Amino acid sequence: MALKSTSTSGLTLTRLMIRPTTSKYSMSGARHYSAPLDGTIPPAKQKYVPTSGTYPKGFLVSGTHVGVKPTNKSTPDLAFLASETPCAAAAVFTKNKFQAAPVTVSREMLKRRNNSDVRAVIINSGCANAVTGKGGLEDAENMGAEADRCFDPPTDGKGGSTIVMSTGVIGQRLVLEHVHVPNSLTLARLPIQKILRKIPSAFEALGTSHDHWLSTARAICTTDTFPKLVSRTFSLPSSPTIEYRMAGMTKGAGMIHPNMATLLGMIATDAPIAPNLLPSLLTNAVNKSFNSISIDGDTSTNDTVAVLANGAAGGKEITSESSDDYSIFQKTLTEFATDLAKLVVRDGEGATKFVTIRVTESPSEVGARKIASTIARSPLVKTALYGKDANWGRILCATGYSQISEPGMPINEVPEIVPEKTSVSFIPTDGSPELKLLVNGEPESVDEVRAAEILEHEDLEILVRLGGGKEEAVYWTCDYRYVFNSSEAQL
Amino acid sequence: MALKSTSTSGLTLTRLMIRPTTSKYSMSGARHYSAPLDGTIPPAKQKYVPTSGTYPKGFLVSGTHVGVKPTNKSTPDLAFLASETPCAAAAVFTKNKFQAAPVTVSREMLKRRNNSDVRAVIINSGCANAVTGKGGLEDAENMGAEADRCFDPPTDGKGGSTIVMSTGVIGQRLVLEHVHVPNSLTLARLPIQKILRKIPSAFEALGTSHDHWLSTARAICTTDTFPKLVSRTFSLPSSPTIEYRMAGMTKGAGMIHPNMATLLGMIATDAPIAPNLLPSLLTNAVNKSFNSISIDGDTSTNDTVAVLANGAAGGKEITSESSDDYSIFQKTLTEFATDLAKLVVRDGEGATKFVTIRVTESPSEVGARKIASTIARSPLVKTALYGKDANWGRILCATGYSQISEPGMPINEVPEIVPEKTSVSFIPTDGSPELKLLVNGEPESVDEVRAAEILEHEDLEILVRLGGGKEEAVYWTCDYRYVFNSSEAQL
Lengths: 491, 491
Known about the structure:
Chains A, B: Catalyzes two activities which are involved in the cyclic version of arginine biosynthesis: the synthesis of acetylglutamate from glutamate and acetyl-CoA, and of ornithine by transacetylation between acetylornithine and glutamate. The structure is a homodimer. By secondary structure, chain A is of the alpha+beta class.
């Protein structure tokens, strides 16, 4: 099989000389697909795993087993996404001061390429390649370079064109648990040779079928209980007859498990977007989606969400922020990212509830967001939700401390919160009327039976009206499972 | 018994005409003392409950059963502290925007009296009197006024002289769970008549014995598993022959329990302190003690810590911030408040570990505090500690995101954190050498056996060296109990 074309390119990468059919690029082993199908997905989560999808033109994907963790004997742990043509691409990265090697490498690559001419994404799970020093940076660079080698070599002098991501345990502990050798530093890094050796077969395995996408989504999982894959079609005003497609995957973010939870996301679309517009489109979308969810409140060293647009569906390229196409695409991307982000919340470890926190009537969007975030992160709110307790006092309490200062600092002014204007309601997800708990700072006479009915459902919206403006913000969160005492927990 | 003196006073309150002996002011029922002694204290916590104490002169206390919660048939839930002579007093209150009625009433009283001539503290547990509107304010005022009536009426025209605190469930849900009536708003308030009726007998029951103090500490508890009482003696340079005393109590702060956790603290000393100095002495002490602990990260509507100084032990009044006496008293008060605050952490619900987070070598104290606070609150760190997992990656991760901005905001500069200068160690509490996990950003070859040994102990210190300055901050936190999956939890 010809992995490289014989043609040469100018400033852009040449076309990938493989045909996007599934038959030619089948996976090398059936087990790679079996993880989502072998019954390990909890029954309550199976409804979130799609059985079909509409995938963007010109993108090929594969999920391959490497065995990054020595204990992993068959589950795919290497995800490869490739585009037949160079893409506009953008990514948002963790703001954690300790950034993993792949974050540094990918950020620099996108900067060097001005968000243009990106060809692939390569992701391993099982090891985060974080806090791994210079060796870790080399590992991440080598992963990208090995993926690059599957394509025609770029001749634009801008180096690699692959986004690299890793997720798993930070530092060396993963390997140390299994192998005892004198110098752990050599083990702190990725088992990079194993990964590099498998990249060519991952490339061979690329395909476009739903099973390919599902296997790839599976390969980026760590503590996730189900693969998180979403696809959709959309159209743009300037080309109403073209069906554009968007597909993406994500992984979370489990509270409580002893492994590190990292949030990764990858979105591909065949719509044509000017590279210089993609970063702000993605940032806007992520702020209202991946940055508006809370599982455990921790921000990882590896968090990365990337978008690639290859324009393979044709039509007019979006080149202006003031165009209708831009607005529609922004809306589409934000909704899509939100759908993905919500799946992460659905998979919060031990979670039984999916809770929307909506803060409205705020003088500022920033204030509303801070309040929504604080409620979403409050352990007391989250444990009350697990206990199906209509405890609006805890919601109010979290609202009230959401903008307080650090100890020793002057107290914030907090213009957003006026106790006697604040109202709290439960909004049922079945369309029935809201249940008012607090109205303008005064407790309502709560129908406890009705409250219990609403809290029986998996989904719930908590609405906080601040009564002081027109801005709003939304967060999505889950409950915290807890144990009452040790005799019940049997731990 | 003469509850009021026949003498009149000038600008200060008259002396309380009761003698500070325990025999005369015995409690009216033995059950009031029984809660800490009847075996309900978990065996592992019994070592934190003192069997004797050295209590400050001129202070009398009692814990009385009211039955604020209808289900409480015998446990003391009304705490009364009185001083024979008017006190200098100060308090720090929650910064939560939704402040409970007793917070408002006590704050105004202390302001009106310029921190002088305070006579008593009255505290109920079982209902927080928070988010209770004007009615709740009246209730809190009436509680204070009823306590005031036990003393000679003040003639200084400054109104009441009693600090009021409440702790329990916010709003109306507590009572609604037990009594169903059409209009819950009338039930949202304290069962104030029950409390007011008992205040005279609480006054009659005042005494100075260790049992009195322990019963009073018991009366302020809610979800606490043991009463938190500390006492000590100290001396001041200007009066080396005088033995001063300090006693105090606190209550927490349980993660996970469906009731509201409020932090209250009350400290009494017989040292003579000028009223104008007491607020800053207390604020400094609280910032390094009660504001440096984290159980669940939530800041309640009722949090209050008060200090009263009656000068009954004699000696020279502390009137200057630049005196040696001031420095020594500040140090004493801070250490004492720290001892109290640590007891709250010891009682974190489900907690198995007591963890000191020390962040050193920081360019700023504020930065060190923010980092320590973030590590102490990280659910991933707390669950790793529960799992006895030497997961320094999570510690580093929390360090790295401790100063990140809200979504959509520009990223902070965070001068405190330089990855390649950051080191993380476990400091064993048995005096054995530290276990280095990360040195200048490079992972150490960790002796897993040694790490496991250290993590077996209840107490542990996590030391983060930032390598960039000389400031430091300390936080105390506990672990989070968690369940691996539902079959283990049997929930």
